[in-house]
Fold this sequence. Notes:
The protein is an alpha/beta fold. The chain has 9 helices and 14 strands.
Amino acid sequence: MKVLIIEDQQELSDSIMAYLARENFACEVAYDFETAREKVNKYEYSCIILDISLPLGNGLNILKELKARDKAEGVLIISARNSLDDKLHGLNLGADDYLTKPFHLPELAARVNAIIRRMSFEGKNKIVQGSLSLNLRDKTVTGAKGPIPLTRKEYDLLVYFMANINKVVTKEAIVEHLWGDNIDMDDNYDFVYAHIKNLRKKLMQGGCPDHIKAIYGMGYKFTAIEEKKR
């Protein structure tokens, strides 16, 4: 899942990014207000970690813009300000959570995970589609024949598909979500095809039906069991 870290303190940003990367998140960073605005307008994220005090602007204005444009990203505010008014103001503007600096990185990661579960999976830790079971807390996948070993990117791809179940997702959206804007696609999607092919093969070997369908000229769709029975 892709996370945007909007924080001007580079040491803190780098620490957050390194920790979340170990937790299987694809991370991008914006160190100032204008870069943050450009990214939130151009890309979509599973969660945005947002500092209030930024060079050249206020992080709350980015939050206002997100909500005005009806974007679906979850927002976790991080701030050195510990006043109740600041916290209530951010939450009333539409933030999903608020964490006061200094904080422990495991707590930050837990809150990011909780926001994503609420936004994409109705707060559930375990997502089940027929014989396929995805445990978001343990980051494990199980099929009818038992555990299914996936690489990090295969797991991330499965989570992305299941967060967009029965929706067509483009190859471009998959690349942006799993690799961020730090990769030069160059209109070559061979690595996307390879990841999808391997994920589909492993799921079927694990005793799951073929949920992943190619939609010609558009992208891919992870089909729910209910739809398959119609």
